[in-house]
Design goal:
Strand content of chain B: 5-15%
CATH class of the largest domain in chain A: Mainly Beta
Radius of gyration of chain B: 24 Å
Shape of chain B: elongated
Strand content of chain A: over 45%
Largest sheet of chain A: 4 strands, antiparallel
Radius of gyration of chain A: 23 Å
Order of helices and strands of chain A: HEEEEEEEEE
Number of helices of chain B: 3
CATH topology of the largest domain in chain A: Immunoglobulin-like
Oligomer: heterodimer
Structural class of chain B: alpha+beta
Largest interface: A-B, 25 and 21 residues
């Protein structure tokens, strides 16, 4: 009854149960945090705006992104993945998302930042494969710049949210 | 002489009873594991509710040996989401589906070299689910067992021996 194996088994089971319980509580405690992140994006310059060799509209922007995401960090936060996407509506697709910049925030100290950058990834209006129409929808198009973030926990549930900054518009003509 | 036969009979019935109860308890362990897995499949809507991270392509977010919990819903896949996909060799059909291209945070390029030969995009039916939860290190158990099968056989053997020899 009280053999070595029996005691080892009981100890292991108890330790694993407590560990699982602590993980669950750590994950649950994230719900008690009500973050108040802020972000501001400026389009400083449109470096070029043209038709690419494939016929898609292509644009290069210089951006100023400043944000304060410190309130997203809790004791159970490993890192925050953040990316800035341009979002717009075309007659065929109700939502187009183009990722312009992304970054990984490893700790709370780095969660307040201001960066000055051109778009890290190509911004072209991709032609839809199924309808085979060229992506020439950007001239005069209104668009949002949306800061998305994914909070990666040390353990448990992952959170994601975004801040939409609207009121941007492409020029009517290529330049 | 009658009492010897009686004793043998009682020992025999005891053995059969014990063997039966051990078989039942072993069956309970196997079936309850199966029930939990299939139940998770129903709740999450994903054909593989729990996956183990096998490579370092998503570092520093997810390391090798971490576990991801998946959920599959009808919502369309959006930019930035962490999806788990299963590449099959079927021809892709020209559907009205949204095409998806994936990339590991820690990789320079996108995941096209991982797709089936000549495949440029993932379709909806390739996606097994999006990651909603995370548990570190636990996946090492399965990684070790697949890479060092001898440990797996030792473990199964020891557990089997324990079940057979246990008195309760």
């Amino acid at each position: 009854m009280h053999s070595f194996g029996y005691r080892a088994n009981a100890l292991l089971t108890f330790a694993l149960t407590i560990l699982a319980l602590i993980c669950a509580m750590a994950s649950f405690s994230d719900n008690l945090n009500s973050p108040s992140p802020s972000a501001h994006v400026q389009v400083l310059n449109i470096n070029w705006f043209q038709k690419s060799s494939q016929g898609n509209d292509e644009v290069s922007l210089t951006l100023n992104v400043s944000a304060n995401l410190q309130s997203l960090f809790t004791w159970n936060t490993k890192q925050v993945f953040v990316f800035l996407a341009a979002e717009y509506e075309t007659p065929i697709n109700s939502l187009n998302q183009v990722s312009l910049w992304d970054g990984i925030i490893p700790a709370k100290e780095y969660a307040q930042f201001g960066i000055h950058t051109t778009n890290k990834y190509h911004f072209d209006d991709q032609a839809s494969l199924s309808s085979r129409n060229a992506g020439s929808n950007l001239r005069g198009r209104e668009y949002n710049l949306t800061l998305h973030w994914h909070v990666m926990p040390k353990t448990g549930k992952m959170f994601a949210d975004k801040l939409v900054m609207s009121g941007f518009r492409f020029p009517e003509e290529y330049r | 002489m009658g009492w010897i036969g009686e004793a043998v009979d009682s020992v025999k019935s005891l053995r059969i009873r014990q063997v039966l109860s051990q078989a039942v308890s072993l069956g309970m362990i196997v079936t309850s594991a199966l029930i939990i897995w299939k139940g998770l499949m129903c709740v999450t809507g994903s054909e593989s509710p729990v996956v183990v991270v096998l490579s370092g392509s998503m570092e520093p977010g997810f390391r090798r040996g971490d576990i991801l919990f998946l959920h599959m819903s009808k919502d369309p896949i959006r930019a930035g989401e962490i999806v788990v996909f299963n590449v099959d060799v079927h021809e892709s059909q020209d559907t009205e589906d949204v095409d998806v291209l994936t990339k590991g945070d820690n990789n320079m390029g996108d995941d096209r070299p991982l797709y089936a030969h000549g495949q440029l995009w993932l379709q909806r039916h390739h996606i097994m689910g999006r990651a909603v939860g995370f548990l570190p290190y636990v996946g090492w158990v399965t990684i070790i067992m697949t890479e060092k099968p001898i440990i797996k056989y030792l473990l199964i053997g020891a557990l089997g021996l324990l079940v057979i020899t246990s008195k309760e």
